[in-house]
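Appendix B. Chain record.
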Amino acid sequence: MSEAVFVIQNQLGQFWTRAGEWVDGREPQRVLKTKHRDEAVNQLVELSAKDIDLRGEVLECDVDEKKEPVIDASTHLTPTLADKAAEKAAEKAAEKAAEAALAAANEEDSPDETGETGEGDNADTQEPPRSAAV
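Structure tokens predicted for this chain:
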């Protein structure tokens, strides 16, 4: 008898992970797999209590040589780990670019070595001080 594991699949053909998200199954190492059917059923009951629209089922799957479930990927694709890593890298790059732009803008507004901000001291345009006349 070959080894088998139990996985949870939703109505879209996606699989539940230990990380608490639905994935399409292209990366079977991410899929929650249990050795016992009752563990998977309990997890499905908890998920159904949180999401009344969920139509899930527990599937028994064979495992490959790496002990990963042999499953068919869903046509409803989800981001892979590589996609998520690329997205995070892009977000960090955007944050760094924004910080650099802000630093450059602050540098332009800061006083130079003479203490002047670059705005001219034009005496012709300044109003004379007002005195307290009686």
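Further analysis of this model is presented in Appendix C.
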